[in-house]
Write a structure and sequence with these properties.
two-stranded antiparallel sheet, mainly alpha, 190 residues, two-stranded antiparallel ribbon
Length: 190
């Protein structure tokens, strides 16, 4: 039985199909490696600079000014102490205005045709093949298990793990003041 479709439904389905095709084409083009000439051309003309994201002190066209009341309101909402002096308050307002200038500059970037970031990971075909769980990887992991005891518990074999390439950083190493295994935080009473 042939189903009759309204013209608007046909147009909608064609539009969806063309979007899917265009998206897959863009993905293929994005994954295709660039030639040396394409890379050279791409980096020869920078489209922006880090300096453009910083607000100049003399720049008065950065948008709305942050008032003292707005700063105090934000500090109260953030459960942060009020500035101790007017100089510290001026510094906080300048910092906040600079950060807002940076955000506004980022928001002006044209992102049409750019798919939203779903996760931070390597989505190349090599990485997908490497992360794929198949019968071989399952057999390898299941081979590390053994059944022990009357209750027939499954445990992994005690194999040594090569930890030579693992970071051995101290999470408290960057703390300015420590007391044993705790970080000391100085607070002001106002």
């Amino acid at each position: 039985m042939i189903q009759a479709l309204r013209p608007s439904a046909v147009v909608l389905r064609l539009t969806q199909a063309s979007r899917t095709f265009a998206t897959s084409k863009r993905r293929e083009q994005a994954l295709a490696p660039l030639t040396k000439d394409q890379v050279r051309e791409l980096i020869s003309k920078p489209s922006w600079s880090v300096k453009s994201l910083h607000r100049e002190k003399s720049d008065g066209v950065s948008g709305a000014k942050i008032t003292q009341g707005q700063l105090h309101h934000l500090l109260r909402l953030s459960a942060l102490p009020l500035p101790a002096s007017s100089d510290e308050e001026v510094q906080m307002i300048e910092t906040l205005e600079s950060q807002l200038h940076f955000v506004r500059a980022i928001q002006t970037v044209d992102t049409t045709g750019v798919e939203p970031l779903q996760s931070i990971r390597d989505e190349t075909s090599h990485a997908e093949d490497e992360n794929e769980i198949n019968l071989e990887t399952l057999e390898e992991e299941l081979g590390k298990e053994k059944i022990v005891g009357f209750a027939r518990r499954i445990i992994k074999d005690d194999t040594t793990i090569d930890s030579s390439n693992v970071e051995t950083g101290d999470p408290l190493g960057q703390a300015p003041k420590k007391l044993g295994r705790f970080i000391v935080v100085n607070t002001r009473t106002s």
